[in-house]
Amino acid sequence: MIDKANIDKTNAWPFVEAKKILRERKKYIDQKGKIILQTGYGPSGLPHIGTFGEVARTSMVVNALNQITDVPKEIITFSDDMDGLRKVPENIPAKDILEKNLHKPLTVVPDPFKKFNSFGEHNNAMLKNFLNSFNFEYTFRSSTDLYKSGFFNDTLKLILKKYKDIMEIIIPTLGKERQKTYSPFLPICPDTGVVLEIPVLEIDEKKSKIIFDNFGKKLEKSILDGNCKLQWKVDWAMRWYALDIDFEMYGKDLIESAILSTKIIKILGKNNPSGFAYELFLDEKGEKISKSKGNGITIDEWLKYASPESLSLFMYQNPKRAKKLYKEIVPKAVDEYLDFIEKGKNQNELQMLLNPVWHVHNGTIPKEKMIMTFSMLLNLVEASNADSKELLWKFVKKYKKNISESEYPIFDKLIEYAIKYFNDLIKKNKKYKKPNSEEKKALNALIISLEKFTDEMQPEEMQTQIYTVGKENGYKENLRDWFKLIYEVVFGDENGPRMGFFISFFGVKETQKLIKDRIK
Fold first, then answer.
1. How is residue 471 annotated by DSSP?
2. Which residue, 445, 515, 443, is CA-closest to 481?
3. Domain boundaries along the sequence of the chain
4. Mean pLDDT score of the chain
């Protein structure tokens, strides 16, 4: 266990939330001898990276709790799969199947992928497979199963009993037209199977039934056993109550819903869970990432180009700040991950609690030494034309003979990611600068200077010599432009690796040839 004094001092957000849970929910935790955390998922579209973020961040809170208390913890991943399908997602095949089944519960809508009994089941399976691949510890709960099994029945009866009080909370938040039709209960139409949003005419509390105005025709429905589901804000409060939730995080777009659900659960007789509102993820255009649009980077895309730990790091950092989430941010995220591992080697316990990688790795920071950044590795892939992991390893070991694959598992995977990332996303967009006569003269001076280099020279010594060449060839006042020229000609980019370090891996003769080829 971590020193209690350091836990008291740290302001790392998972510890802040963990301490808040134990403070705000003490009575409920003591009663049940357990801490229950919930993450919600709406399976109206394929699971996206934001879903992962919610489970990853909640798992980090559990890790922090584990350092403070031995009380058992459980993460419930709840799927709102009894919700009606409101619109057809853009990134789904056989859209006509979904169009014919709009407004039906997701676990009734046929699976357009033709793999499962329903669209809801398909998306639930995708979610579980994904979470399992990360070894998350969670309990999956299906809205459909809990409604139909009668698990929610007692809470539904309580909501019916408090019907008027709940209506007094919700109605003032609605427009005039919606006020006329609003009901906390949504019956499933016996004729069409559609989730109906229609007004209530009468309540029969003793029989747990409600009579609705179904477009001029009376519809009598039991509220139990999945015959009705609840409107979103009431449904959320009902889950908190019935599952006895102690903590839930949610996007800032749901803050108003959380406020109303908090009022409702208090009417039912319990306090709301400890909450955490995080900022939303945006795509490269600054638009909110959406399950139905499929914009931004997908889970599979990130994992094709970088490790799951780098994705967890991205989720850890600044959860209350909106962040753009697209393919081009992957190298930066990976380099930050490597940098935090390196910093962890010389940190004391209190500093480690603020190190994001400590939270990503559940309290154990990897010991592996960093060979090079992901950004430089991408340059090495380009310069060497390596198209396989084995070939690039041979190249690296040619100049660093003491390196062994088995001792560098993180770097070993990094090579694989770098080759895919370069070939898929960088190669096709490369635009190499054609140097003018003065620029050629400076670069040729660098080629001549490289004649005096040896592969045994230290990277910093090489870097100093490259500085000198720049100063002697018109870049004395602005060495940034000198390196920008090298990067644009050699790597097709304004930014690049520290050249001395690059040459130490790529080789002196190889670098000479590379610059000559680029000039031509």
1. I
2. 443
3. 374-429, 437-519
4. 92
Residues 159, 184 contacting (CB under 8 angstroms): yes
Q: Measure the N-to-C terminal CA separation of the chain; round to a whole number of Å.
A: 61
* The two structure tokens encoding residue 343: 């910093």
- Record the tokens describing residue 161, joined without a space: 């009993």
* H helical segments located in 69-105: 95-99
Which residue blocks in 202-245 are alpha helix, DSSP H? Answer: 232-243
pLDDT at residue 494 tops 70: yes
Among 275, 284, 286, 285, CA closest to 251: 275
Confidence of residue 295 (pLDDT cuts 50, 70, 90): low
Residues 180-199 have pLDDT tens digits of 889 999 999 998 999 999 99
pLDDT value at residue 1? 72
Which amino acid makes up residue 280? L
Structure tokens at 41: 């998922």
Q: Are 35 and 256 in contact (CB under 8 A)?
A: no
Start-end of H helices in 317-388: 330-344, 349-353, 356-360, 374-384
Number of H helices, E strands in the chain: 25, 12
The CA distances from residue 336 to 96, 299, 300, 315, in Å, are 44, 19, 21, 12
3-state class (DSSP) for residue 221 = strand
Separation of alpha carbons 316 and 323, rounded Å: 12
Look at residue 42 and give its three-state secondary structure: coil
The whole-angstrom distance between residue 294's C-alpha and the CA centroid of its chain comes to 14
Q: Which of 358, 307, 297 lies closest to 333 in space, CA to CA?
A: 307
- Reduce the DSSP state of residue 250 to 3 states and report it: strand
Report yes or no: 201 and 185 within 8 Å, Cβ to Cβ: no
Q: Which residues of 17-39 are buried (b: 16+ CB within 10 A; e: fewer)?
A: bbbebbebbeebbeeeeebbbbb
* Check whether domain 437-519 has CATH 1.10.10, yes or no: yes
Q: State mean pLDDT over 31-49.
A: 88
pLDDT at residue 294 tops 70: no
Residues 6+ apart with CB under 8 A from 508: 450, 453, 454, 455
204 beta partners: 209
